[in-house]
Amino acid sequence: MPYRRTPAVQARLDAGRTKLLAAAVEVLSTKGYAGLSVASVAAAAGVSAGSVYTHFDGKSDLVVEIFRQVCTREVAAVVAVAAHGSTSERVAAVVQTFAGRALKNRTMAYALLAEPVDPAVDAERLVFRRKFTAAFADAIVAGIAAGEIPDQDAAISAAGLVGAVGEVLVGPLSSHESVDVVPGLVAYSLRALGVRDEHT
């Protein structure tokens, strides 16, 4: 008869995995992808490195899971603010939320957006970008339908905005410059879509 984990054993394993993920998020937030290792996560969690391998195949597998969790949270924050208002309000809210949250945790945001990573992690980064693009596209489609912005290819415009916002953020995130780029990003995004900037 095959071994079945008891609910107590499964709960202990789940708690261990949750503890490791929390420790990994902490390490990624302070040291970035380059500074994260199985050993550093194990130390932050107060367990042996072998315990990490009980739950994850290695660093890449662990970081893929972190990306999924953190990106899901970040996308949810952006989608929530993009749900209501005029096109300019929705686009401004997406940019302000996306960039504002990134600038609050620069090391983590740099890891999510631009730091060199393993191919499996880079694949998750593309999923993350597509979800942010969809949030912009929804606002653009609604704006076109309402006559608030000129007719345009919403998918291309949205991808362009995600690329522009990400590229502008790379400088402050990688160098920890204390520059507030958010107002300029909002103004640029609105101009790019053909709306007058109401936020400057």
Automatic annotation (TrEMBL):
Annotated InterPro entries: DNA-bd_HTH_TetR-type_CS (IPR023772), Homeodomain-like_sf (IPR009057), HTH-type_TetR-like_transc_reg (IPR050109), HTH_TetR (IPR001647), KstR2_TetR_C (IPR041490), Tet_transcr_reg_TetR-rel_C_sf (IPR036271)
Alphabetical list of Pfam families matching this protein: TetR_C_24, TetR_N
Residue stretches making up the HTH tetR-type domain: 14-74
Record-annotated DNA-binding residue ranges: 37-56
Signal peptide: none
PANTHER family associated with the record: HTH-TYPE TRANSCRIPTIONAL REGULATOR PKSA, HTH-TYPE TRANSCRIPTIONAL REGULATOR RUTR
Domain of life, per lineage: Bacteria
Organism of derivation: Rhodococcoides fascians (Rhodococcus fascians)
Protein name: HTH-type transcriptional regulator MtrR
Keywords: DNA-binding
Gene Ontology molecular function: DNA-binding transcription factor activity; transcription cis-regulatory region binding
